[in-house]
Amino acid sequence: MAPKGHNVAVSNMKLERMLSMRGGKGEASYANNSQAQAQHARSMLHLLREALDGVQLELPEVPFVVVDLGCSCGGNTIYIVDVVIKHMIKRFEALGFEPPEFSAFFSDLPSNDFNTLFQLLPPLANYDGGISMEECLATDNHRPYFAAGVPGSFYRRLFPARSINVFYSAFSLHWLSQVPEGVLDKRSTAYNKGRVFIHGANESTAHAYRKQFQADLAGFLRARSVEMKRGGSMFLVCLGRTSVDPTDQGGAGLLFGTHFQDAWDDLVQESLISSEKRDSFNIPVYAPSLQDFKEVVEADGSFAIKKLEVFRGGSPLIVSQPDDSAEVGRALANICQTVAGVLVDAHIGGRLSEELFLRVERRATSHAKELIEQLQFFHIVASLSFA
């Protein structure tokens, strides 16, 4: 039998190959369950535009390059890239410059549903037909940029040195590169017995999660410090928390540490899975505090913080009838399945996964009123440029 640590390492390697938001266009797909992200991103556009105003403009013959890291597979990424490029075109034109050609890279892990994403892309504007950038922008159904997909983990290098003007990443950096060391190891003090998430865990587990987040963010910053052009800008948004205590994960805790957690316990109590099977699963998500985030940026030293704040995003539950308990329950189960379904399927198989999310839905339905009142997401918003 392989030693326990060996199994963990294999599953962490697999994590990068399989982690993705639910693809396709079904009920629990990311494309159909990312309206909250769209609303939260739109509410931060003024902060994004502020960051873009700090980007240095280059000669028009040099292509301007924008990257969305953790783009996923819905329309949100296309909307944001459009906002960035249109804002930059206006900046060039305000100075009397001919705008350059634009390039957009959509990047995510290899298992991301790039097919669905690229089907959503508007056709490229026909520059060859003598159409000007202004005419191209006037026809809203065409895009004024060349597009490409870049598969790979953003915790490592993805682009040539000094090649990117703007990095954008939203709702992705709270995903860790792996389940933290010791969390799944019975011999470790960080062993998260009986739980599938950091929320409500012990101090050692919390320390392991925090350490993993900081190591990952440091790797992310190291890679971007090589890839970003001088005068470029980086705009980052991830789930955050307002509590000093890392075991109080706020909205993420309510999402994964309550009804989702209880649904796993239901499967154990009904003898559908063993307690060992439950204990060998943990959600690799960490909602940092401002302090957690700031410490890493300052220790890295490559970037100056232009803005760093906690932003109240609002509820991830987008429902037409907040009084309809069944709709609320289904919405919460869909969100959980959208973001964690791929991991659950891989751990217990599709049939038991369906059973688990049915129980999430049932539990959320009976707690619908408090979910509507209490489930709020806070985001860390960071605008960084070279120090």
UniProtKB/TrEMBL annotation:
Record-given protein name: Indole-3-acetate O-methyltransferase 1
PANTHER family cross-referenced by the UniProt entry: S-ADENOSYL-L-METHIONINE:CARBOXYL METHYLTRANSFERASE FAMILY PROTEIN (PTHR31009)
Domain of life according to the entry: Eukaryota
Record bears the keyword Repeat: no
Keywords from the UniProt entry: Magnesium, Metal-binding, Methyltransferase, Transferase
UniProt key word Methyltransferase: yes
Gene source species: Nepenthes gracilis
Single biological process term from Gene Ontology: methylation
